């Protein structure tokens, strides 16, 4: 596992030509749009990216993103952990016309001629993984916790006879 952040301003064309794999850990706080949806800024996103071309044509990036983020439970309004573990695949194109020609089930990633910050791509994927509203599992939710039925016997504990004995011995 690597602890390096994602490289900034990469040449996608070169990465694809060299069949590059990038493994990185990017701090959550660097994803500003995502942070708007979260309750905590701490933590890292684990990212794996593969830039490659297929023999039958086409250039692609396959990616994996993993993170544990904190979102607000919409029932009890308390933070709850949300595990993100997702894979995605995009077709790399340079123009809108090329994007239209991609198969419909393949997301286009239009890179143009400038260097790209792939954090935008990662952030889009992360945002897709955060549901519009989240809820604790019923038993974990502060607002929905059903108290177990109390037993019929009084709950107050009787004095422990040994403690009483100790107190008598010590003369208190
Ligand atoms: Zn809750």
How would you briefly describe this protein structure?
The protein contains five helices and five strands, in the order αβαβββαβαα. The protein is α+β, with helices and mostly antiparallel strands and 172 residues long. The chain binds zinc ion.
Distinctive features:
single chain; 5-stranded mixed sheet; 172 residues; alpha+beta
Q: What does this 3D model show about the protein?
A:
This protein is of the alpha+beta class. It has one domain (12-169). It is 21% helix and 29% strand. The protein contains five helices and five strands, in the order H-E-H-E-E-E-H-E-H-H. It has helices at 12-17, 32-35, 96-101, 119-129, 161-169, and strands at residues 21-27, 44-53, 59-72, 79-93, 107-110. Strands 1-2-3-4-5 form a five-stranded mixed sheet. Strand 2 and strand 3 (59-72) form a beta hairpin. The longest helix has 11 residues, at 119-129. The termini are far apart. The model has no long low-confidence stretch (mean pLDDT 88). Residues 73, 75-76, 78, 136, 141-143 line the site of zinc ion (ZN).
């Amino acid at each position: 596992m690597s602890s390096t952040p994602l490289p900034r301003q990469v040449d996608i064309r070169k990465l694809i030509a060299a069949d590059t794999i990038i493994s990185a850990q990017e701090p959550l706080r660097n994803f500003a749009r995502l942070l708007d949806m979260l309750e905590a800024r701490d933590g890292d996103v684990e990212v794996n990216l593969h830039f490659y071309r297929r023999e039958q044509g086409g250039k692609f990036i396959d990616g994996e993103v993993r993170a544990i983020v904190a979102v607000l439970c919409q029932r009890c309004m308390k933070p709850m952990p949300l595990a993100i573990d997702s894979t995605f695949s995009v077709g790399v194109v340079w123009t809108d016309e090329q994007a239209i020609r991609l198969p419909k089930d393949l997301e286009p990633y239009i890179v143009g001629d400038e260097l790209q910050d792939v954090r935008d791509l990662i952030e889009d994927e992360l945002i897709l993984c955060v549901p519009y509203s989240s809820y604790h599992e019923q038993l974990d939710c502060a607002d929905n916790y059903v108290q177990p039925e109390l037993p019929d016997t009084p709950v107050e504990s009787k004095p422990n006879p040994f403690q009483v004995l100790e107190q008598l011995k010590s003369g208190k």
